[in-house]
Specification:
Strand 5 and strand 6 (155-164) form a beta hairpin. This protein is an alpha+beta fold. 18% of the residues are buried. The two termini are 16 Å apart. The chain has helices spanning 8-38, 51-77, 134-139; strands at residues 95-98, 106-110, 118-121, 124-129, 147-152, 155-164. The chain has a 6-stranded mixed sheet with strand order 3-4-2-1-6-5. The longest helix has 31 residues, at 8-38.
Length: 165
C-alpha cells in the first residue's frame, strides 16, 4: 500500500504550535495558582486550615509544568530532522510504521517530548512517542524490517517495522 509521505517540518511546526498553546495555558494556570497562594483569603485562620499550603503546592506544580513545556519547545526548535532508510537505525525524528498499523495509515514520530500528541497529515495518522516511552525504548536503535516485541501494560505486542523514514 502506497502512502503519501509526511513532511516532517510541517509535523514539527504543528507540535511546536501545540506546545506554545499548552505553554500559554500553563503560564495562566501558574499565575492564577500563585495569586491564590498569596491572596489574603488564603491566610490560615486555624492550625487545620491548609488552603494556603494547598495553593502553594499547586503553584509549584504549575510552575514545573511551565518549565517542562519551555524545555520541550526548545528541544523541538533545535531538533535536527533526519531521513532514515534500511541502513540507518531508528533514532530521534524517525517516522515509524509497524505492519499492523499500515492499513490504518498510522505512524509513530519519535520526538524529544510531547509524547501522546496526535495529528493527521496527508491522510496519515501520527502519534508522537518519546525515546523513554515503552514503544520508544523498543524502537530506538532498531532497523526497518526487524521484528519487535513490546510490553504494553499486561499485554505483549509482536509486530515488525514495516517502514521508517
Amino acid at each position: 500500500m502506497t502512502s503519501k509521505k509526511v513532511d516532517k517540518k510541517i509535523l514539527v511546526a504543528l507540535i511546536i504550535t501545540n506546545l506554545k498553546q499548552e505553554l500559554s495555558q500553563a503560564i495562566n494556570a501558574a499565575n492564577e495558582a500563585h495569586a491564590a497562594a498569596v491572596d489574603d483569603q488564603s491566610v490560615a485562620e486555624t492550625q487545620y486550615d491548609t488552603l494556603a499550603i494547598e495553593a502553594s503546592y499547586l503553584a509549584e506544580g504549575q510552575s514545573r509544568r511551565v518549565q517542562e513545556l519551555q524545555e520541550a519547545l526548545l528541544n523541538y526548535q533545535g531538533l535536527t530532522l533526519v531521513e532514515f532508510d534500511e541502513n540507518k537505525p531508528i533514532a530521534l525524528s524517525a517516522l515509524v510504521q509497524l505492519y499492523a498499523d499500515s492499513k490504518k495509515q498510522h505512524w509513530f514520530f519519535i520526538g524529544p517530548a510531547a509524547g501522546g500528541f496526535r495529528c493527521q497529515l496527508n491522510d496519515q495518522h501520527i502519534t508522537v512517542i518519546t525515546p523513554k516511552s515503552p514503544m520508544g525504548l523498543v524502537l530506538m536503535g532498531e532497523y526497518n524490517g526487524e521484528n519487535i516485541d513490546i510490553m504494553l501494560g499486561n499485554g505483549k505486542l509482536t509486530d515488525y517495522i514495516a517502514s521508517v523514514y
